[in-house]
Amino acid sequence: MKLGSRQRSVLAGLLLALAVIVIAVALSQWLFGVGLDPRDDTLRRAAGIGYNDEARGTLFSILPVALPALAAFLAPDTRPGRVTVRLTRLVYVAYLVIGVLLALSAARYGFDDARQLVEEGQVFIDTRAAVERLLLDAVWLTLAGIGLVAVRWNGTRERSSTPKPVKLSPPQA
Question: Where exactly are the transmembrane stretches of this chain (predicted)?
Answer without folding.
Answer: 57-75, 87-111, 131-151
